[in-house]
Amino acid sequence: MNQNGFSTGEEDSRGPLDKICCLQEDGFRCQRQAGTASYSKKIRNTVRQLKLYLDAVARHTYICDHHKSMIQSARTLKPSSQVEAPEIDFSQLKMNMLRRYKKYFKVKTEPNLNKAQMAETSVSHFKTIPVNEKEALTFFIYTIKTNGTKLDQKK
Ligand SMILES: [Zn+2]
Question: What is the pTM of this model?
Answer without folding.
Answer: 0.41
